[in-house]
Amino acid sequence: MALRFEVLATQGESRLGRLTTTHGVVETPAFMPVGTLGAVKGVSPQELGAAGASVMLSNLYHLALRPGIDVIEKLGGIHAFTGWSGPILTDSGGFQVFSLGALRKVDEGGVTFRSHLDGSPLRFTPENVVEMQERLGVDIAMVLDECPPWPVEPGTAEASWLRTLAWARRARAARREGAGAGGAGGMGGLFGIVQGSIFRGLRERAALDIAELDFDGCAIGGVSVGEPKDERRAVVEWTAPLLPAGKPRYLMGVGTPEDIAHAVRCGVDLFDCVLPARNARHGVLYTREGVLKIKNARFRDDPRPLDEACGCPACARTSRAFLHHLVRAGELTGAVLATLHNLRFYLDFMAELRQSIRLGTLADALTFDPLEQRSS
Amino acid sequence: MALRFEVLATQGESRLGRLTTTHGVVETPAFMPVGTLGAVKGVSPQELGAAGASVMLSNLYHLALRPGIDVIEKLGGIHAFTGWSGPILTDSGGFQVFSLGALRKVDEGGVTFRSHLDGSPLRFTPENVVEMQERLGVDIAMVLDECPPWPVEPGTAEASWLRTLAWARRARAARREGAGAGGAGGMGGLFGIVQGSIFRGLRERAALDIAELDFDGCAIGGVSVGEPKDERRAVVEWTAPLLPAGKPRYLMGVGTPEDIAHAVRCGVDLFDCVLPARNARHGVLYTREGVLKIKNARFRDDPRPLDEACGCPACARTSRAFLHHLVRAGELTGAVLATLHNLRFYLDFMAELRQSIRLGTLADALTFDPLEQRSS
Question: What is the pLDDT of residue B374?
């Protein structure tokens, strides 16, 4: 079996899990750093591992545009290409394609669009999206889905869901049997995606639809597209409990530590978000005492590490004052050290959540909550 | 003694040396990666050490503008501030100040200029430049010098040298006795700088002038300012042999591996250059088989590491194809991996030069020569 998931412990809806792939084991709840083009911005594969990452996320849409699936396949697959030897999940790129607006056209068979790079025409279908991810040799592939914008009319959301469900069935059927090696030319597992915008009835129905299709895991998509926090949380609360208990659940594109902690309490196992890396590049740094806006003048001569309890390369050797200096000066090393720090923070945070579920003390563990309100 | 230099072996004019500072030992000939603002662009202190660097170069002018000497002194000095615990040499910033053109005014007492950042007025004198470097706690400080442009009239170059010599005497006198701790508030050693543009008589006289002043080491400045390669090499050939044999010799701002190898044959011990890092960011990568312009289409599906013999993070895990992909896409990780590679190449190259002097096989060692002609 190419992908195995075991629930080792629970506390309420929260689960401590172990996801076994041919490229290694992922302890869940887990955060997947985002390497859209095959690398987390500013981070080498070695540093990604050193930060504590066990799985990396990449993106089929972006890799298909450049360098192209042929190139990566020829080079031995996505692991050989990126130098990241651990598990890799690729998003299908549905979200990116549907963000193209006028550049794309949807029909029942799939979506036709133009590259945002050079305008060349491309077509994604439920079948070729599975096939391309198999050729990349990813550990976890995602089906092609339609991600409705927010806000959207209920009728539009429902029609969109019916198409996404039809696509999910075709993707499931397209999956090559025996293609589960998880190496080049093989694939570990295929996840379905629940959509339905912020409509409870539609989300619940979609969750049951996807649960029925016997995917290797189920994702909640269509969140973090601009909706208010309460709506986003409600979607997670409605959807997660309806997904199969024995399979991993993945909340796509979420989020803040607070949002992640909430979703873990709802039984979600996997997360990805550009937030820690993007915030790092803008000097917004996570610490156990709250968020630091490191460009703030009060850090100019602050000799303390960003976070006393952090073991990242920035905290091990340098100070808030040094990061303040580098980030304000626009120095590349500022972005690099800040990114390494924020990733480490997120990955440490996930480890703390796992330990709390193990000990049955999850509520007590949220020492960062409410992090969003305590920035400085 | 705050700075000790021993010549361990020679081959012709080439010297294998050991420079001992309070922050560690530098085996020479050595290359000093350039961390203008306290960090090599894109590189953490940990990665700098892992690449094999034993000494880092920084810049008084830039650090005085931001974050300011007061801030660094308050934070415990330049080593505590940057997180680089090995030896640090700071250039005085004469080169930068004289590049400001209309923004600066020279008089006998020093140079008055406006910050290139915010236009605020500043004044560097031979005395305060020594004092500021003492306050930073650098291991090697450089005197304030005037760096004439190229080309320049002989008479102008001579007048400039007379002023620089007077400044060198004042800098020597200004050095606090007992300030040699090489920690915050102390300084390891002070180097004089030979100028004289491309005029042989003036360079020779300047070398003897500086040799007389009993600095802890002597630098050859005023090269790599636009002059042809042959002129640059001639300056090194005239000057280096006239500098004290028992003290380290530093060729400022040079250069290509070929230029460095030439200068080592003339008896130079220390080098710095932005070239490996700047070239890396533009996708120009050094290898033992010549220079690779990694954006070139022929690397699109090249599975080989940049250099089979290299142990840098890029070569250990990834391919030319991956670097091609990242650099073309403008991904931050492309700049980071390329920089780590080029630095490692330069530092390995210096180690090879040292080993060759040790074995008396220097001429045979220049396997990269003529590197400049073999780019692809």
Answer: 42
Catalytic residue chosen out of the listed positions B209, B269, B272, B307: B272
Torsions phi, psi of A307, nearest 5? Answer: -145, 120
Q: Which residues in chain A are contacts of B321 at CB distance < 8 A?
A: 67, 71, 75, 81
Question: Which residues of A are less than 8 Å from B340 in CB distance?
Answer: 44
Complex ipTM value: 0.95
**Which member of B67, B316, B321 has the closest CB to residue A71?**
B321
* Closest among B76, B330, B81 to B183, alpha carbons compared: B76
Q: Which of A43, A76, A331 sits opposite B333 (nearest CB)?
A: A43
Query: Is residue B301 annotated as a catalytic residue, yes or no?
Result: no
Q: Quick check: is B91 catalytic?
A: yes
User: pLDDT at position B177, please?
Assistant: 61
The tokens describing B222, both together, are 């005023």
CA angle A63, A64, A69 (to 5 degrees): 95
B290: pLDDT strictly greater than 80: yes
Chain A residues touching B45 at Cβ < 8 A: 313, 317-318
DSSP annotation of B299: G
The pLDDT value recorded for residue B186 is: 54
Instruction: Give residue-wise pLDDT tens across range B233-284.
Output: 999 999 999 999 999 999 999 999 999 999 999 999 999 999 999 999 999 9
Q: Say which residue the tokens 């001569």 belong to.
A: A301
Q: Omega of the bond prior to B42 within 30 degrees of 0, cis?
A: no
Residues A211-234 have pLDDT tens digits of 999 999 999 999 999 999 999 999
Residue B194 has pLDDT above 70, yes or no: yes
Which pairing describes strands B249-251 and B24-28: parallel, antiparallel, or unpaired?
unpaired
Percent of chain B, pLDDT > 70? Answer: 93
Quote the pTM value: 0.95
Q: Do B316 and A46 touch (CB under 8 A)?
A: yes
Task: Note whether A88 and A79 are within 8 A (CB).
Answer: yes
Question: Which of B322, B341, B343 to mutate to test binding with chain A, by most A CBs within 10 Å of its CB?
Answer: B322
Helices (H), chain A: 45-50, 60-65, 69-74, 78-82, 94-98, 126-136, 154-174, 200-212, 229-239, 257-265, 275-281, 313-317, 320-328, 332-359, 362-365
Select the residue from A318, A320, A341 to test the B interface by mutation, using most B Cβ atoms within 10 A: A318
At position A46, the amino acid (one-letter code) is Q
Chain A residues near residue B47 by CB distance under 8 angstroms: 313
Average pLDDT over residues B205-219: 97
